[in-house]
User: What shape does this take?
Amino acid sequence: MANARNTEDSKGSQEAQDSRESRKSAENTRANKRPGPMEVLRQARGQLAELTGMEAESVSSFTQTEEGWALEVEVLELERVPDTMSLMASYQVELDPDGQLTGYRRVRRYERGRADGRRSGGQ
Assistant: This one.
């Protein structure tokens, strides 16, 4: 009877270890599925275009944060002739760690041909 109990204890211990390893493996798989920076950029541009109807021309700022990702995206809002008179806008875009857009807002508008006093990097 002692052998049966030891076998059951051993079996239960092995099942608990297998369960822990399975959870660890699932966590690692989820972590490995997280998008890299380039994929986050692509997703952000696509999601912003889908929401606003305007294509992103460039990303001028890109930072990983505790909550996910923060970007500043330059968008053509109103095309004019000559092109240097077209209206551009900078949008602050926030994404979760998986690259899903959680919020955006326009932070400035400007003519394409005009430089402003802002520092580079969207700051």
